[in-house]
From TrEMBL:
Taxonomic lineage: Bacteria, Bacillati, Actinomycetota, Actinomycetes, Propionibacteriales
Keywords in alphabetical order: FAD, Flavoprotein, Oxidoreductase
The keyword Protein transport is assigned to this record: no
Top-level taxon of origin: Bacteria
Protein name stated in the entry: NAD(P)/FAD-dependent oxidoreductase
Similarity comment text for this entry: Belongs to the FAD-binding monooxygenase family.
GO molecular function, one term: flavin adenine dinucleotide binding
Flavoprotein keyword on record: yes
InterPro entries: FAD-bind_Monooxygenase_sf, FAD/NAD-bd_sf, Flavin_mOase-like
Length: 501
């Protein structure tokens, strides 16, 4: 009855799907797989010509995951063949392509389908989604567009005047041959610390513009031997055991984030790591952070600091004042002429991708509705936006563990929410404003006094109001618990007739 009502008055030529998912990275593929397993028909809209999300897009030299491969995998596709403890970008991308193919998802994925707009149709209780010349209609819309999908170029005077080559690390221009070139790198975050050591031996000179020194810890990486892979394949419980061990060890880190003073021991270990990599005391001083470890993402690398201690590298402290036709002017006003500028300046986290094009019942977009601080119930559903779910929504990111179990917990909640509405023969479901506010105040309570707010740094974890609207500040186990039992009292259901009002 629900389906036939929704189809009455469907836009001419609109393609129908029970659930529309936007994005085919980890979150989108995970959601599509689990919902199909639950018997739900899905269509995945993907803007690119391939699946993979950030692991398709971030092809910079040295790109790899800083979370162990054993836990950076779906629980339904553990992959005994990971070749190293921390997988590289190409292998993770390949893994995602294999998952999409082997689970039969490919026929349900529309590649090269950039979503331009989504509107909630109050009369029929459906989402109408426009992607190029196609229109899709679905009872439920899931945004799996990631939190770190849109590269952020810095707002620097003169940025368009530079006459050499320039690109962002998340859109690496492989046509530019860096051999022997003078290269400026702006930014020293998780991406830069991976590509700087990879390009340093090749370039003529690299000038690294550091605005804030990052804390770096050793990366305990090693190849996984064929023998181990064989064992994981033949005796899956051994891989499951390894996975659980790493996962639980990482969970313990949340305690340290909660009590920033505990980070002092880790800071000592990081300084020891720095001393072992950089012999020049002046350079060591430049590279020593002045805020509490954990305030920004903790970086793992065995070669970043060492690569900076080379004659063809300069580290300029204090950031960048301006870009000119021929190079970069640093904070002290000194001009550095270069051939290439690489922006390792991170991602736009001021609003989640696409939320400025998703229009709710009143026509207001989700980002307008949120204003400066994004909020959602369980980081997944939003009061006032029926039948909408956000994978990697507000407060789903993690500073301490793999985000994949967070996605799996979110999908579990989405599945139960849809099933609850179905059983009640309801056309719409959304969280109550009270439930959402309670979740948000729990997040605020857990964040209060943590290293993220009292660590003395600026990070993308906090929004322009100073609130943590990006990270889940608890354990992933507590998040899984919160999503494992569906609480009907925290949701409102609606009929098509009610939706018309
Ligand atoms: O970006 P970032 P990223 N002038 O935002 C600097 C994930 N990730 O792409 O610290 C000068 O961390 C900025 O300086 P400051 C991971 O979640 C995961 O490196 O703001 N500098 C900073 O140094 C990570 O947290 C993996 O003072 C400017 C840098 O640019 C997230 O992606 C690998 C500037 C930006 O660092 C983002 O990492 C890679 C300006 N105007 C990334 N503007 C894994 O392994 C910015 N900066 C899973």
């Amino acid at each position: 009855a629900r389906a036939s009502k929704a189809q009455q008055g469907a836009a001419v030529g609109a393609k129908q799907s029970r659930v529309i998912i936007v994005g085919s990275g980890f979150a989108g593929l995970g959601a599509a797989y689990e919902l199909r397993e639950a018997g739900c028909e899905v269509t995945v809209l993907e803007r690119a010509s391939d699946v993979g999300g950030v692991w398709r897009d971030n092809t910079y030299p040295g790109a790899a995951c800083d979370v162990e491969s054993a836990i950076y995998s779906f629980s339904f596709a553990p992959n005994p063949n990971w070749s190293s403890q921390f997988a590289k970008q190409a292998e993770i991308h390949e893994y995602l392509r294999n998952v999409a193919r082997d689970t039969g998802l490919m026929p349900h994925i529309r590649l090269n389908s950039t979503v331009e707009r989504a509107d909630w149709d109050n009369d029929r209780a459906v989402w109408t989604v426009r992607a190029g010349t196609d229109t899709y209609e679905g009872e439920h819309l899931i945004l799996a567009t990631g939190a770190l999908a849109d590269p952020k170029m810095p707002n620097l005077p003169g940025i368009d005047k530079f006459t050499g080559e320039a690109f962002h690390s998340a859109r690496w221009n492989h046509d530019v041959d860096l051999t022997g070139k003078r290269v400026a790198v702006i930014g020293t975050g998780a991406s830069a610390i991976q590509f700087v050591p990879a390009i340093q031996p090749q370039v003529g000179h690299v000038t690294v513009f550091q605005r804030t020194a990052p804390w770096v810890m050793p990366k305990h990486d090693h190849p996984i031997t064929e023998r181990e892979q064989d064992r994981f394949a033949k005796r899956p419980f051994t891989q499951k055991f390894a996975r659980t061990r790493i996962y639980l060890q990482r969970e313990l880190l949340v305690t340290a984030f909660r009590y920033p003073v505990l980070m002092k021991a880790a800071e000592r270990a990081s300084k020891k790591h720095l001393a072992s990599q950089v012999s020049d005391p002046a350079l060591r001083a430049t590279l020593t952070p002045d805020y509490r470890l954990g305030c920004k993402r903790i970086l793992l690398s065995n070669d970043y600091w060492a690569s900076l201690d080379n004659p063809n590298v300069s580290v300029i402290n204090g950031g960048v004042k301006q870009v000119t036709k021929t190079g970069v002017i640093d904070a002290a006003g000194v001009q550095h002429d270069v051939d290439v500028i690489i922006y390792g300046t991170g991602f736009d986290t001021s609003r989640l991708p696409l939320t400025d094009r998703v229009h709710g019942p009143s026509g207001t977009t989700l980002s307008e509705h949120w204003g400066d601080s994004q909020q959602a119930f369980l980081g997944t559903s939003v009061a006032g936006f029926p039948n909408l779910f956000l994978m990697h929504g507000p407060n789903i990111g993690l500073g301490h563990n793999s985000v994949i179990p967070m996605f799996e917990a979110q999908v579990n909640y989405v599945r139960k929410a849809i099933s609850h509405a179905d059983k009640a023969n309801a056309a719409t479901i959304e969280p109550t404003a009270v439930a959402q506010a309670a979740f948000v105040s729990k997040v605020d309570r857990l964040t209060d006094g943590s290293v993220w707010t009292s660590g003395g740094c600026d990070s993308w974890y906090l929004d322009s109001t100073g609130r943590n609207s990006n990270l889940w500040p608890g354990t992933t186990i507590s998040f899984r618990n919160a999503t494992s039992r569906f609480d009907a009292s925290k949701h409102t259901l609606g009929t098509v007739e009610a939706a018309k009002v």
